[in-house]
Design brief:
Beta-Lactamase, alpha+beta, 4 domains
């Protein structure tokens, strides 16, 4: 077992057979402690599963991993990138965590899991509020490492602020050895970025209070609680504005759904040997349902954002041809699964426009993914770019069953779909896409006829 935290990134390479063929010393040592050798199958199950998933999907995957190392667990962040048939690994973190230390009571543990779902960073302290664990991102935000804070008081990282009633919730909770919520704090050395701290008590093996397991959630400066005696009282969590609610909804649901999808995909890939056919089928169904829910979460969060009165996308120069090619690349696996060909703009093509890059990419992803969904097996989705007067345009044409003229405006309405009984999205995608396009000075139009496929065109202001 190693108790040394690795400050630098640790690299490794896994070949197409799942063998660890190259590794920096910390990873090689972990491989040997797990019962493997350099040149044999990767022996750390959690990293091996992530490697197989990245290779199977053909995309870069970055996720937190907890790996056993003797009598401790290691908190790792693993990036697995497919490259020429192999998978390149970059691992950071390497924070030892004793698995049999103080634990939260079952009810408190459930509360801690909910805190983790909506938080940006996580931490643990002893009974004197000295750090025993800290998310790497929290330390790096102030230019330091988690090791720098171990044994140091929580106030070395956070400047605690009074709540509206003039109290410090964390100190009241410490005195009463109970849970606390909404402790205002500012991050030291990072321009006073505001956070809300929450925590649940830890109990040791003898039943004694042993500290807190907590979370830190970033808040916008405008939402930061006012000091005692100044301004209006801070709103309760139930009265947070739509933006804050959307962000919390996204964090609360995206993490567990990501885990469900990843685990289901791992099971369906049968990494540990063959499964009964219906078991593998169940796993694929779970993964598909998880992806559908994840898309719905994204749509709901976007819906709240675009319907705010002050919503305004950035106006920046973009290349629509580049965005079209990126979209085709991102959706190539989904298209291949349906045996649909994506005909994208040539590498030499370029079309300058004005819009917000990530929002235009979002629109293009929606249009092309819809085209793939409704294309027949063996069909082609054509993605073209051209200038039309003062507008730069992306056109997405499929060979599906088409859209009747009477439905061509209805599909852009909220929660509307041509055939609600047909597998598909939430009915929000095209509504959001058109709202975004119009917010950027453009529009989305459709030309189609029943049985003749559909042709969607995104128009944006052309760059001068």
């Amino acid at each position: 077992m190693s108790d040394v935290r690795q400050e630098a990134a640790v690299r490794g390479r896994v070949d197409s057979s799942g063998r660890l063929i190259d590794a920096d010393p910390p990873l090689e040592a972990l491989q040997r402690r797990a019962g493997g050798e350099l040149g044999t199958a990767l022996a750390v199950p959690q990293i091996a599963s992530l490697t197989r998933l990245a290779r199977r999907l053909g995309v870069v995957i970055s996720r937190p991993v907890i790996a056993a190392d003797g009598d401790v667990d290691l908190d790792l962040w693993v990036r697995a990138a497919p490259e020429d048939g192999d998978v390149e690994l970059v691992i950071t973190g390497w924070i030892p965590r004793a698995p049999r230390g103080p634990s939260a009571a079952p009810e408190a543990q459930r509360e801690a899991d909910m805190l983790r779902a909506v938080a940006d960073w996580f931490w643990e302290t002893d009974d004197a509020l000295r750090f025993t664990s800290l998310s790497p991102a929290a330390a790096s935000a102030v230019g330091r490492t988690p090791a720098d804070f171990m044994g140091q008081p929580l106030t070395q990282l956070f400047h605690l602020k009074e709540a509206v009633d003039g109290s410090l919730p964390i100190l009241n909770a410490l005195a009463e050895q109970r849970r606390f919520d909404d402790q205002p704090a500012e991050l030291r050395g990072a321009n006073g970025a505001p956070y809300l701290l929450s925590g649940v008590p830890l109990i040791d093996g003898a039943g004694h209070f042993a500290g807190f397991r907590g979370a830190a959630a970033a808040i916008e400066a405008a939402q930061a609680p006012a000091p005692a005696g100044r301004g209006a009282p801070r709103p309760s969590p139930d009265s947070l504005d739509a933006t804050a609610f959307g962000e919390r909804l996204d964090r609360a649901l995206r993490l567990p759904l990501d885990a469900i999808i990843a685990n289901a995909e791992t099971i369906s890939s049968q990494p540990e040997g063959p499964l009964r056919r219906h078991y593998a089928g169940y796993a694929r169904d779970i993964a598909a349902a998880g992806r559908h829910l994840l898309e719905l979460v994204g749509d709901l969060v976007d819906l709240q954002a675009i319907e705010r009165p002050d919503f305004a996308p950035e106006a920046e120069p973009i290349d629509l041809a580049d965005i079209a090619r990126r979209t085709a690349g991102l959706l190539s696996v989904r298209a291949a699964d349906r045996n649909v060909t994506l005909d994208r703009p040539a590498e030499a093509e370029s079309l300058a426009a004005i819009g917000e890059f990530k929002r235009v990419l979002q629109i293009a992803m929606n249009l092309v993914s819809n085209a793939v969904r409704y294309s027949p097996e063996g069909g082609t989705v054509a993605i073209r770019v051209e200038r039309q007067g003062d507008f730069a345009c992306v056109e997405v044409a499929d060979q599906g069953k088409g859209i009747a003229p009477a439905d061509q405006e209805r599909i852009f309405e909220k929660f509307e779909r041509v055939d609600p009984d047909e597998p598909g999205g939430s009915g929000l995608g095209l509504y959001i896409a058109r709202r975004l396009a119009r917010a950027m000075g453009g529009d989305i139009v459709v030309r189609s006829a029943t049985g003749e496929g559909a042709r969607f065109t995104l128009r944006l202001p052309a760059a001068p």
